[in-house]
Every structure is written in structure tokens, then in C-alpha cells.
Amino acid sequence: MRTWFLEGFIGESKALRRFSVTDFPFRIGRQDGLQFTLDTAGVSRNHAEIHDSGAGLRLKDLGSTNGTYINRKRIQGEQPLAEGDIVHFADQEFRLIMQSSSDRHDLNQTRAGIGGLSEKMPQGAREFQQLLLNANVIAVFQPIVDRFGRIHAYEMLGRGAHEGLPVSPGELFKLAESLELEVHLSELFRRKAMETAAELNPDATYFFNIHPREAENLDKLLSGMEKMRRTFPQLKLVLEVHEAAVTEAAMIRQIRETLNKIDIGLAYDDFGAGQARLVEITEVPPDFVKIDMSLIRDIDKAAEAKRQMIKMFQSFLHQLGIKVLAEGVASEGEAKTLIELDIDLYQGFYFGRPSPSLDILR
Questions:
Q1: pLDDT by residue (tens digit) across 126-142?
Q2: Residue 211 and residue 182: Cα distance in Å, rounded?
Q3: Residue 180 burial (C-beta neighbours within 10 Å; 0-12, 13-18, 19+)
Q4: Cα separations (Å) of 41 from 45, 108, 242, 330?
Q5: Left if phi > 0, otherwise alpha if psi is -120 to 50, otherwise beta: which for 298?
Q6: Which of helix, strand or coil describes residue 328?
Q7: Of 114-128, 151-165, 198-212, 267-281, where does mean pLDDT reach its minimum?
Q8: Interatomic CA distance for residues 95 and 117, integer angstroms
Q9: Contact partners, residue 261, CB within 8 Å, separation at least 6
């Protein structure tokens, strides 16, 4: 059975708690015996109440001194509530959610003085849940080219398309992580990108990413890859795995084995940005290694030793049958230097910015 919950931090506690909203009208205040007692100076004795109208929940302020707020806007009288709304009773902040009633917790009472509105709960929680529900995202594609400027593949990327939320995937993932919904967002971006790619050009090659949290449930991740392959059997695909995951040899070996079975390539992303070692590359060789942009930036102005390092690294990878991709190429000077080094593939704003269209070369 699913029921409504208020989720928040009580007093000075750093532990997120959930409290079931039942027995309507659900009254909130400082007075003992209410359905939800907040023993806090800023909360009035009878502060507010929630009732079920049959068409949804509604929140009513009961003439409180310090106010009742929905999404940081003080309400007058009664207002409708929706899942994901951020609710304040004075300075006490909660998010309204729906979840299994088995998750119910008891209420711990603490004291806290009135101050400014808390911002522990992220703004946009309600809108973000709408984004997931309505799939309000779009796919964009950035070209990956060879040394002659010919398109080899595209990297699939996502952008937000909800009016009340950022477009940037970085900002969306920050919000998703605060709500513990980053895996859901990653899966939505990927599904949208696959659907769009299949419509635009099912014969092209596409690189795609996963969120690091997805690797925490490897069975779910791999079963998702298998389902994706069944849904899009015609697409040529390459999974990008961040170099930090490459150090988990057993995990990356299992990923490689599954990808081989379903004909999906493997790329190690952002290589050189962290602590990945060459030994992992020899143990589980990928099809591609993407050199991190921190090594590419201003390579045309760098010391000769840096260019020689990249050249030796590429020679080592070629001996293993691995192609090298330089990402983050932003200038003509960088591109010319990398071409002189005979790098296999290139990606970056110099060659094309992410776009909903596949006709995106400069």
C-alpha cells in the first residue's frame, strides 16, 4: 500500500526522517496530541492542517504566526499539494512524497528557534519528478571524427526540457543526486538518446555513458544493457566507463564479458584524470581509450615532453589493439598538434558542439 509522507530534518538532526500523513485532517503544530507535533518555538500551537479532498491533498494555514509555505511561497488560507512539494511550517522544512507505508518512522521531538527558511530541501523537487514522469528531456549528439575530419561516431548526451528546470545535465544531476534519483535521470537520458538515434540514423555508431551510481548495482546495470540491445538491435554502440571504475578489475571484466555477448563496444573515459593504472588496461583491454581533456588542453603550447608522453601512451595502446580518442579539443592549435601526433579520433567544440541534429560538423 502506498501512502503520503512528510520527509525532513527535525530540529538540528542531520538524519533525514519520514513521517506518514494519515488520519485526516492531519493537523500540525506545537500542541501535544496533534497528528504531527513539532516542539519548536517558531511553530504555532495549531499551525496548519492537511486534508484529503478526494482529488488530492490540500494544505491550510490555521492563522500561524510565522507562516506556512509551499515551495517557499507563503500561503494564505488553503492551497493544493502535489508530490515533491517543499513545505515549511515556520522554519521547519519537509518534502511531500509518496512511498510504501512500511517505511513509516516514529517522530523524535526536538527544539529549534525560528530563523530564515531552511534550504536543506532542494528547490525544483516537484518539477524534477514531473520531468522524470513526463520524460521532459532531449538527446543531443557530439561528433567523433578521424584525423581527416570524417565522422566516425557520435557521443549521445542529454539535456533538460522542463520549463522550470535547468537545461544543463550537470545542474540536473546535482538536483537528481540531492533527491537520490540520479540513476533514474541517467536511464531516462539514455533511453531518449537511443530512441532519437534510431530515428535519425540507425546505421551510425554511438558512444553512451552511465552514471557512476549505476555500477553499484551491477546485475541491474547489465540486465539493462541486455534489454537495451534487444530494444535497439540495429544500433552500433560503445559504452563509456569512467576511468575510476577501471580499477575495479572484477567488475570491469564482468562488464566487458557481457558487452561482448551483446555486441557493444567498451571505452575507458577521462583516462588520465585520476588514478587508473596501465595494468588494468592490459588485464581488460577496451576498444577505445578517451584521453582526458586535462591532458589535451593547450597541448600545442605544452612542453615537448608532454607531447612525447601522449605519443608513447598511444603506441602502447596500439600494441593492444586499442584506438585512442582525444576529447575536449577546443582550438585549431590543439587539433593540429594532435593530428601531428597521429591520434586516431577527436572530439570537442572545435569539431562540433552537441546538437539535436546529426549534421553538426563545423
A1: 688 778 878 999 999 99
A2: 7
A3: exposed
A4: 9, 16, 49, 56
A5: left
A6: coil
A7: 114-128
A8: 14
A9: none
Please give the model's pTM, rounded to 2 decimal places. Answer: 0.69
Q: Which domains does the chain possess?
A: 2-120 (2.60.200.20), 128-346 (3.20.20.450)
In this structure, which amino acid lies at residue 118? S
DSSP 124-174: THHHHHHHHHHT-EEEEEEEEEETTS-EEEEEEEEEE--TTS-S-HHHHHH
- Rounded to the nearest integer, the mean pLDDT of the chain is 87
Residue 236 pairs with which residues in a beta bridge? 205
Could you tell me which of 272, 327, 314, 362 has the C-alpha nearest to residue 155?
327
In the block, residue with C-alpha cell 515549511: 88
Q: Which residue has the cell 588485464?
A: 283
Q: Return the closest-CA partner of residue 19 out of 95, 119, 123, 82.
A: 95
